[in-house]
């Protein structure tokens, strides 16, 4: 929850310092109330600035104040201060590259203790909020096995206290589950669309019918956006567009919560761009990539950026595969700008993949100088990276597709490589082995996916927040959420590792992916003629 307190940190510090000389047992009720209020606000202000030790100190002082008296209201204030400290969604910029889920889990457990002593709705509400944020933190840190039990606990809290604010927290948690949990259980092949026997989207609709208010609507929007990850896996563009329309309708119905509702749209629109690419529908790719970029420009959060990267990548890939080199280059520049703006390895991942697509397109369209320049750029990118061998293997495969473009610059190695390539190649370069076409994007996010972190927010999972994906936001194999970097945090996958993994796999498969893409487009055009993607000549969707 974003703090609405307008007092400055300095003012709050002075208010707290005014009570330094007075023992808690010597304060009257008014003094205790004023100090309690200032401690809660100051702890939250420190946390919002990333000063977590100072935040913990204020919470500890609030706890001592609670223990020194018999004022039950301090329990509630302490629970709220602890819930504020679990905030992931409201502190997206702090957790762009690192998050400590254990710290957040510990704060949630302390609220559980308070709730055990005082099982009332006033404590249940911050407990529900903290539980939803802990699910978000564990998803970002790729501790997905912890999500299910926390969802069950949150359902139990709602069953005991079926209040709108607790329902809203439950729906935010379900939204995160949609982004972070795999669609199917690898062991049983059973759908993971449900937790505790419930389909998450159906459960969200049920809760919204019971509590049709704005905060619950924002939670429902998150669940709908999160489900587009699974829709994109099935290339179900129409389903995604239907969910986008529903989210926009919710925003129109609840203008006071418009920002909280619309912040989920980058997740859905990026997945629409991705699914449209899989369907070889260039018009839809361009439409939804443009929509995602517009949403990111308005939101400007790390999570919306991861999902913008996801959508821009697929838009660039569509342009390069379609032979529109200039358009692809313009989108590559946008990816470079995102990579330079945000300190998250997921952006290097998407950029490197687009660079390989660009190099492949240059080869296909006989832009020899550009092809050599891009290969040189990728070679420089590989220097000093632990996955240098994989990146260079991908570059060698590219050179083997068009030895006449590269060999004359290789100082004597040309003849040997040309001979090897001629011996190994039995057909057109487009018939290279296919090692998997377009990778999937989960969020988380955040981006996106995000064993990198995010697309998702997806792109953090890309790409993925109440975004917030991404997310990209964004999580998953392609990355969109965020992980830690220090020894005491959860380490994210490195930018080089992500780029190398994407480059090695994508380059081997991109030739056949290109051929299949062009063939699929030709088939669509032959069947559909001049009909637009929405069946009536329009651009479809939003």
Instruction: State which percent range the strand residues make up.
Output: under 5%
Q: Estimate the global geometry from the Cα principal axes.
A: elongated
Structural class computed from helices and strand pairing: mainly alpha
Which regions are unreliable across 5 or more consecutive residues at pLDDT < 50?
184-197, 411-440, 442-508, 525-542
Mean pLDDT, all residues: 78
List the helices and strands and how they pair.
Layout (H helix, E strand, L loop, with lengths): L8 H9 L11 H20 L3 H17 L4 H13 L15 H17 L3 H20 L6 H14 L3 H17 L13 E2 L2 E2 H11 L3 H20 L3 H17 L4 H5 L2 H14 L3 H18 L2 H20 L3 H17 L3 H20 L3 H15 L5 H14 L1 H4 L7 H11 L70 H34 L14
Antiparallel strand pairs: 1-2
Helix pairs in contact: 1-2, 2-3, 2-4, 3-4, 4-5, 4-6, 5-6, 6-7, 6-8, 7-8, 8-9, 8-10, 9-10, 10-11, 10-13, 11-13, 13-14, 13-15, 14-15, 15-16, 15-17, 16-17, 17-18, 17-22, 18-19, 19-22
Keywords: Membrane, Transmembrane, Transmembrane helix
Describe the structure.
By secondary structure, the chain is mainly alpha-helical. The chain has 22 helices and 2 strands. Strands 1-2 form a two-stranded antiparallel ribbon. Strand 1 and strand 2 (198-199) form a beta hairpin. Helix 2 (29-48) packs antiparallel against helix 3 and helix 19 packs parallel to helix 22 (495-528). The radius of gyration is 25 Å and the shape is elongated. The chain crosses the membrane at residues 497-517. Residues 446-457 have a biased composition (Low complexity). Residues 408-468 are annotated as: Disordered. Keywords: Membrane, Transmembrane, Transmembrane helix.
């Amino acid at each position: 929850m974003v703090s609405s307190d307008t007092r400055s940190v300095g003012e709050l510090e002075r208010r707290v310092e005014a009570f330094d000389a007075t023992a808690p047992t010597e304060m009257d009720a008014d003094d205790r109330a004023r100090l309690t209020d200032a401690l809660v606000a100051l702890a939250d202000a420190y946390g919002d600035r990333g000063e977590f030790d100072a935040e913990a100190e204020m919470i500890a002082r609030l706890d001592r104040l609670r223990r020194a008296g018999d004022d039950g209201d301090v329990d509630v204030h302490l629970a709220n201060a602890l819930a504020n400290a679990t905030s992931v969604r409201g502190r997206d910029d702090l957790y762009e590259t690192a998050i400590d889920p254990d710290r957040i889990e510990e704060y949630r457990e302390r609220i559980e203790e308070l709730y055990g002593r005082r099982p009332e709705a006033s404590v249940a509400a911050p407990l529900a909020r903290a539980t939803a944020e802990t699910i978000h933190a564990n998803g970002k840190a790729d501790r997905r096995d912890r999500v299910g039990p926390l969802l069950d606990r949150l359902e139990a809290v709602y069953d005991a206290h079926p209040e709108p604010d607790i329902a809203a927290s439950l729906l935010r948690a379900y939204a995160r589950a949609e982004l972070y949990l795999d669609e199917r259980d690898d062991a049983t092949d059973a759908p993971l669309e449900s937790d505790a026997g419930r389909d998450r989207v159906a459960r969200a609709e049920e809760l919204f019918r019971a509590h049709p208010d704005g905060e619950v609507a924002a939670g429902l929007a998150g669940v709908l956006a999160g489900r587009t990850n699974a829709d994109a896996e099935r290339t179900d563009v129409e389903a995604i567009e239907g969910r986008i329309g529903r989210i926009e309708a919710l925003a129109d119905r609840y203008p006071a919560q418009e920002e909280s509702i619309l912040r989920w749209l980058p997740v859905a629109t990026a997945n629409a761009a991705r699914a449209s690419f899989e369907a070889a529908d260039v018009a839809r790719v361009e439409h939804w990539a443009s929509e995602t970029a517009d949403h990111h420009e308005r939101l400007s959060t790390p999570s919306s950026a991861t999902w913008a990267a996801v959508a821009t990548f697929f838009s660039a890939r569509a342009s390069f595969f379609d032979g529109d080199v200039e358009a692809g280059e313009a989108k590559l520049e946008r990816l470079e700008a995102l990579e330079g703006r945000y300190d998250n390895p997921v952006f290097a991942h998407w950029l490197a993949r687009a660079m390989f697509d660009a190099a492949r397109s240059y080869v296909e369209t006989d832009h020899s100088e550009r092809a050599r320049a891009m290969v040189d750029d990728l070679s420089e990118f590989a220097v000093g990276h632990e996955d240098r061998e994989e990146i260079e293997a991908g570059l060698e495969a590219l050179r083997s597709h068009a030895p006449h473009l590269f060999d004359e610059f290789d100082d004597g190695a040309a003849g040997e490589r040309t001979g090897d390539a001629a011996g190994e190649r039995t057909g057109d370069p487009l018939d290279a082995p296919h090692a998997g076409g377009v990778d999937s994007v989960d969020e988380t996010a955040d981006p996106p996916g995000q064993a990198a972190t995010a697309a998702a927010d997806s792109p953090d999972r890309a790409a993925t927040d109440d975004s917030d994906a991404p997310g990209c936001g964004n999580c998953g194999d392609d990355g969109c959420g965020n992980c830690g970097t220090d020894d005491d945090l959860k380490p994210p996958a490195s930018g080089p590792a992500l780029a190398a993994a994407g480059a090695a796999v994508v380059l081997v498969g991109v030739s056949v992916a290109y051929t299949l893409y062009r063939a699929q487009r030709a088939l669509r055009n032959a069947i559909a003629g001049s009909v637009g993607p929405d069946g009536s000549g329009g651009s479809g969707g939003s």
